[in-house]
Amino acid sequence: MITNDIGLVSKTSLERSVVAVGDVRFGEGFVVIAGPCSVESEDQTLAIAREVKSAGAQMIRGGVFKPRTSPYAFQGLGLQGLKILKKAREETGLPVVSEVMDTRDVSWMCEYVDVLQVGSRNMQNFSLLKEVGKSQKPVLLKRGMHSTLTEWLNSAEYILKEGNRRVVLCERGIRTFETYTRNTLDLSAIPALKELTHLPVIVDPAHGTGRSSLIPSMSLAAVAAGADGIIFEVHNNPMAALSDGDQSLTPTEFSSLNGKIASLRSFLDSLN
Ligand code: PEP
Ligand code: MN
Description:
The chain has about 270 residues and is α/β, with parallel strands linked by helices. The chain contains nine helices and ten strands. It has helices spanning about 40-55, 80-90, 105-110, 125-135, 150-160, 190-195, 205-210, 215-225, 250-270, and strands at about 20, 25, 30-35, 60, 95-100, 115-120, 140, 165-170, 200-205, 230-235. The protein has an eight-stranded parallel beta sheet. Strands 1-2 form a two-stranded antiparallel ribbon. Helix 6 (about 190-195) links the parallel strand 8 (about 165-170) and strand 9 (about 200-205). The longest helix is centred in the last third of the chain and has 21 residues, at about 250-270. Phosphoenolpyruvate binds next to loops.
């Protein structure tokens, strides 16, 4: 059960929070974010940014600090990557989201990104939560891979308590005994969170499944379950991606799926 001391995130009325990032409004309509798992080079990121924009994405994603299981795996381009993301935003006009992993990076990263992502592995990094809570940037708070809804909402509460009310929750799958999928995407979290909190909730079917073949069906299911948006990993050459190629859509696949999402949304709207 959610307890009374998760007061700021709790749903107290029918009012839902809208988190505005420029013209993008989480919690009103539907927000599609797309981009590579990692920023690998200027050419790769700008090419993908152009493709996802023309396919209808409203925001760009791209990691420059990567939480990799192996310390020998690609760790991200850091500042160089942020400069590339800034170029992508200048060229496409789309706001940018990127993961922050370290409290020391929060304030200077704010100069380069429009939304700070707190990743699954850091959902209970309380120092980081407090630091992003002190910033004025919107925060995309991913669900910890072992976290209950109450733990997740408590993490959001840390951010709101520091004065930053602009939090978007992102369901990205939890660890279960299943190994065919990378994680188990908990779509029941969407309607459950709608009962518990006023914060917008989006879904990440890439990390939630680990397999690009499963992403279309899980995305449509997320729309039907009431998600406020989806974040996709898109790569122009998934086989050669430096991270998460198996769960990355090609620009063509993304474009086709985005069309289906729009059709499903109009159908669902016609039912109301
Ligand atoms: C990511 O978005 O690339 C990422 C590492 O996500 P998560 O924290 O959900 O694993
Ligand atoms: Mn990834």
